[in-house]
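User: Good morning. I'm curious how zinc ion would be positioned relative to this chain. Could you predict the structure with it bound?
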Amino acid sequence: MIFAWSRSWHQNPDLLLREVRELGVTDVFLLLTDYDGAYYRSSLWTKRDLSLEIKRLTSALAEEGVRVHAWITPMRTTRAEKRLYMVNRLGQSIYDDPPYIETYKFLCPNRAETLSIAESLLREAAGLAEFYGVHLGYLQYPELPLEKPLAEGLYVRYDPKYDYCYCEACRAKFKAETERELFDEPKDVALRWRAKALAGFASALAQRARRLGFKAVSAHVHPGPQYAHTAAGQTWWEWGLDFYVVTAYRSNWGGDLGWVKRVALESAQLGRVAIGVRIAELSPGEAAQLSEVRGRVLGISLFQLPYGGIPQWLIRDLSTWA
Ligand SMILES: [Zn+2]
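Assistant: Good morning! Here's the predicted structure, ligand included:
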């Protein structure tokens, strides 16, 4: 299978269709919501109302036999009420003091309201067009910082500023479950507990998505199971989704093509995964070399279309994945 994320589909839907055809893409993840709102008239936060365009594009892709997945990002938003946001170990709300970049703001998965928001987005997506599946983005805690150098093992450095979440809801829930204080727990216990909270949230979303008629529920997750767990709280193999796309982006995390392959194989031991790559990072022959693992993984996923000027070698390389 050949997957493709499409974040900027609205800039040129016709080009997206053409490139999907050229590359033999089987599944498209179509971005419906972003950190600053939805691309349709949402009951929550509307950025632009492109409902008609979404309907038209989804039908056109489906007519070509392409499966279209509604791609939503329910935890990452800049527009919810401040009290719903994650709080770090120093007591700072991510709403006021986001790590890395200004828009890196996440809702706490232990809040019932976060699940209601996510449910609304799922329901709205189901009513918007004929989507085959739903693709969940940014189900994570902000990453603990990486040790230098990047690549290879992706070792993380513990820093309380990047350690989320210690909001009132999390502390109360931890106390109710264990009769202990979350603040007093050793770091590894707190990290495991937050991963459990995220797994519960993801599983609840998957259940609701299936009830709404989505035939496949997937998510993009961080590369390498150990790193995904320690840095971002993602024990995705416990989420119960249909498949996962591992974002093995060399420009984000370092590493070479061998690392991408290793990450794919390690992850494939724990669940059904596709390997995610940035088109701009690929050199001629690399996508074909990666297809050596194709019996073990579900497919390859490209970030992102429309790309503009797809090279002929990429079309040739991807044919090894068809
Ligand atoms: Zn919390």
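The chain has ten helices and ten strands. The chain has a mean pLDDT of 96.
Let me know if you'd like a different ligand tried.
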